[in-house]
Design goal:
This protein has about 350 residues and is α+β, with helices and mostly antiparallel strands. About 60% of the residues lie in helices and about 10% in strands.
């Protein structure tokens, strides 16, 4: 009877030890996975949020595997299969690429939602106690930046599945992933600032903005009094060759004048980082940003530019055409290629 009691006790001890190993091992693994999204942060997350981040990290691993399989399948194709884009092997590689794109999107959306919901709870709490949380411009800036990148990423992922060209879809997907990383990063930074409120730290983040820079960025971009150097010191007779736009592209026109405008003046109302192009049409110098293959991409940039009078323009073979005509031409080209 004594031996039975000892054996029973040993079984319980072994089981409990194994249980502890599983729990601590799992917690360590979860913590390592979550660092993929929290490496520059020092925020306390509950068990449910940690599980979501672990799930997101696992999905990213799955997406990496799917992408590798897709690339392997595509690499194995003949040059003719890549050019014609009709074989079952080509379609299989493209389908696998689409699957990886959706998995990346799900993973980053899940990680983004963890930080987003916590941020939202902070602002709701401030509203309930009627507290304006003064000095939180930096948190608001990063939250706005995160939403901007998230919007761009969602548009890119949508465009991935609209194309039947593997390399183009891969390029667009890589764009989406880049934007998603920035979206999660900036949403996390906003959460860190909210978590530390009312204390403000110098976090030393890469590409961080100073409070002075952020206040300047968030000011009303409308110019009431143009500076004296509104015009550029260039030859006003110079005609900028617009034939550089060989294919159908969409751009966002942000300004136009009968004389060329200086960079200093343009930078007053356009605060973005997309290079500004200038073309000379119908006796007007026209300034635009972006070169997009879809109307949706250009429209997203127009909204993000925060310029009230900005609008989307389209070009075909270097000639300006109606945007709807451009969309119709693209549809015809896609149909002909099938």
């Amino acid at each position: 009877m004594k031996d039975g009691f000892i054996r029973s006790s040993l079984r319980k001890i072994c089981f409990f030890t194994l249980y502890l190993l599983v729990i601590t091992g799992g917690a360590g693994h979860s913590q390592e996975n979550s660092k993929r999204f929290t490496s520059e942060l020092n925020v306390k997350l509950d068990a449910l949020d940690m599980k979501k981040l672990e799930r997101a990290a696992n999905l990213l691993n799955d997406a990496d595997i799917l992408l590798q399989e897709a690339n392997n399948q595509y690499t194995a194709l003949t040059d003719l299969e890549k050019k014609e884009r009709y074989s079952s092997a080509y379609n299989s590689a493209l389908k696998k690429l689409f699957e990886s794109s959706e998995t990346y999107k799900t993973a980053y959306n899940l990680a983004f939602s963890v930080f987003y919901e916590k941020n939202k709870n902070f602002w709701q709490k401030m509203n309930r106690i009627n507290h304006r949380a003064s000095g939180m411009e930096k948190a608001k800036y990063y939250e706005g930046s995160a939403l901007k990148y998230q919007n761009r990423a969602l548009i890119r992922h949508m465009q991935v599945t609209e194309s039947d060209r593997y390399e183009y879809s891969l390029e667009i997907m890589n764009d989406a992933i880049g934007y998603e990383k920035l979206a999660v990063r900036d949403q996390g930074r906003s959460l860190q600032i909210c978590t530390d409120y009312p204390v403000e730290y110098n976090y030393g983040w890469e590409d961080d903005k100073s409070l002075e820079e952020i206040v300047k960025i968030m000011k009303d971009p409308i110019v009431h009094e143009p500076p004296t150097d509104i015009f550029a010191t260039v030859d006003t007779e110079t005609v900028v060759d617009s034939s550089v736009f060989k294919e159908i592209i969409f751009k966002v026109q942000i300004a136009a004048h009968t004389a060329p405008l200086s960079d200093e003046y343009l930078n007053i109302f356009y605060k973005g980082d997309i290079p500004i192009d200038m073309i000379f049409e119908e006796d007007w110098y026209k300034y635009s940003i972006g070169r997009y293959k879809t109307l949706e991409e250009a429209e997203a940039t127009r909204i993000e530019s925060n310029i009230k009078k900005a609008f989307v323009v389209a070009y075909s073979e270097g000639k300006k055409i109606n945007t709807q005509e451009a969309v119709s031409l693209l549809e015809k080209k896609r149909s002909a290629a099938l």
